[in-house]
Amino acid sequence: MKIHKLHYPGNVEIEPVEQYSLAIGFFDGLHKGHQAVIGGAKKKAEELGIRSAVMTFDPHPSHLFGGGKNKVSYITQYPEKARLLEAMGIDTLFIVTFDMALASLSPEKFVDIFIKDLGVQHVTAGFDFTFGSKGAGTMEQMAALSGGTFGTTVIDKVTDNGEKVASTRIRQLLAEGNVEEAALLLDRPFRTVGTVVHGEKRGRLLGFPTANVQPADDTVLPANGVYAVRFTVDGEMLDGVCSVGVKPTFHESGIPPIVEVNVMDFDGDLYGKEVAVDWIKHLRKEEKFDSVDDLIAQMVKDKQQAKELLEI
């Protein structure tokens, strides 16, 4: 998959010019609703015999419109988003810098530069996609602005139990620790990608050595607690039990959440490696124990419960 990073004004022209069926949107999470849009663009590319493409934006628009004060956390970071898109068979990914210059473009100018000039033959987007200054452009307007040079398809909302599948809903589920329902909306387990870093090494002393996973600062994490997970390193997927939180038995509150995974049936050096944590099942909330022995006893139970769940 080709990846083009575009910035306006500046490097918008792509050579050689291809013909594209384009799915456009922010697509944080690449959930079932996003998949419907991207799948529609891919199907149209096959019908027209042209390349499939996705256009997304970085950073999230709310970061800009919040004056840089809004903390924006992402369900899916860009390297993982690119991996998923490539697995879906997308040929080209356009990542457009979202700044004031882009946000100030009129809908007409946006279509001229980011649709027509890029050789787009068909645009697919969700029913609520907007573009141009103050989000004034709609898909109905995009069709009118095409002048017959490209086609458009609007994908209606995708629902689950009568409720729209949306990134905000998935964030709320993760905030509740409900990784199982989040996985249903994502059509895959929620995944955190990070690097294994040195921690306090307390887990090894307790008989439960852990990989301390450091994700990007702007990554969404599930609610503090203990989870059954699958842990991928060097292409190998292993079972694990993961604690995310502040370790209240040893710390007062106020520190950033720490992601620690006890990887089952593994004995090796993980430091510095990029790994992935797939969150499968919430086991319990984070809690403070009266003694280290009580904590160890619970950790034994957590590991056994996770092992039984992951064997199913």
Strand content: 25-35%
CATH superfamily of the largest domain: HUPs
* Low-pLDDT windows of residues: none
The shape is: elongated
Helix residue percentage: 25-40%
CATH level 3 topology of the largest domain? Rossmann fold
Order of helices and strands: EEHEHHEHHEHEEEHHEHEEEEEH
Indicate the CATH class of the largest domain: Alpha Beta
Order of strands, widest sheet: 1-4-3-2-5-6
Distance between the first and last residues' Cα: 35 Å
Average pLDDT, rounded to a whole number, is: 90
The structural class is alpha/beta
CATH architectural designation of the largest domain: 3-Layer(aba) Sandwich
Largest sheet: 6 strands, parallel
Total DSSP E strands: 14
**Number of DSSP helical runs:** 10
Domain module count: 2
Write a compact overview of the structure shown.
With 312 residues, this protein is an alpha/beta fold.
Describe the fold and architecture.
The chain is an alpha/beta fold. The chain has 2 domains: 2-160, Rossmann fold (3-Layer(aba) Sandwich), CATH 3.40.50.620; 190-311, Riboflavin kinase-like (Elongation Factor Tu (Ef-tu), domain 3), CATH 2.40.30.30. The chain has 10 helices and 14 strands. It has helices at 32-48, 61-65, 78-87, 100-103, 107-116, 139-145, 167-175, 179-186, 202-205, 292-311, and strands spanning 2-6, 20-24, 51-58, 92-97, 120-126, 151-155, 159-160, 163-164, 190-197, 211-215, 225-233, 236-245, 258-263, 274-285. The strands form 3 sheets. A 6-stranded parallel β-sheet has the order 1-4-3-2-5-6, sandwiched between helices. Helix 7 runs antiparallel to helix 8.
